[in-house]
Write a structure and sequence with these properties.
about 220 residues; alpha/beta; Rossmann fold; 2 domains; five-stranded parallel sheet; about 45% helix
Length: about 220
């Protein structure tokens, strides 16, 4: 389980992780927990099957079909390795998490030492808090899975060095880059830096972007 604030680069990291695992020969199943599937077990499982052009009839058949795709042999020499990666996982409701737990638990024998046993890996990535359908802020809860987690990590925001490095790609002026980096560090987000730079260019019109434009851009986004 990996959780971190908005705009720190989770989605970018997810894409990079998936790409690197695929190069290593891992079957990577990537999902995004949209509103349409995050609260319905069948919809969630069928979204997995849809990637493999598979259709089923009953709910039981759907679960078995997903297990057939996910069940690798990760502890066998040259065995097939499979990982499910779910983005925006904070939206998953309890019954969907319980279904994931049920599938995960089928791999217990393999994890306890049966090298020929089937199992799969699972990575859930999301924000610590999010807006519910009713507009209220909610804290992400993963109670059905907490006893299964091997890694439960809160991802930090970007460091000063990372903000400075990214700022240098947005503008080559040293003063502007420094202003960008400080704004990104204060808000803990690289995404905010890119947005502020776009807004500053609009504020500058046909003229050059100045630090004052950047400060105004950050202010319009809710800064000081």
């Amino acid at each position: 389980m990996l959780r971190g604030g908005v705009g720190i680069g989770k989605s970018f990291a997810l894409i990079r992780i998936a790409r690197e695992l695929k190069v290593q020969g891992v079957l990577v199943v990537v999902m995004t927990a949209t509103e349409a599937i995050s609260g319905n077990i069948n919809a969630f499982l069928r979204a997995i099957l849809g990637q493999y052009y598979t259709e089923t009839g009953s709910s039981a058949d759907t679960e078995e079909a997903v297990w057939a795709i996910m069940a690798g042999r990760p502890f066998m020499v040259n065995g097939r390795r499979v990982i499910l990666i779910v983005g925006e996982a904070q939206k998953l409701v309890g019954r969907v998490l319980e279904a994931l737990r049920g599938l995960w638990d089928r791999g217990d024998e393999a994890r306890l030492g049966l090298s020929t046993g089937p199992a799969f890996g699972c990575m859930l990535i999301g924000n610590p808090t999010f807006m519910s359908k009713g507009g209220a802020q909610r804290t992400a809860s993963f109670e059905p899975l907490l006893s299964r987690l091997t890694h439960n990590m809160r991802l930090p925001g970007p460091s000063r060095a990372e903000c400075q490095s990214f700022a240098a790609t947005l503008h080559d002026d040293t003063e502007l880059a420094a202003e960008l980096a400080e704004g990104g560090l204060a808000r803990g987000s690289l995404y905010v830096m890119a947005t502020a730079m776009r807004s500053a260019r609009l504020l500058a019109g046909d003229g050059p972007v100045t630090p004052a434009h950047l400060r105004q851009a950050f202010k319009m986004m809710g800064g000081q």
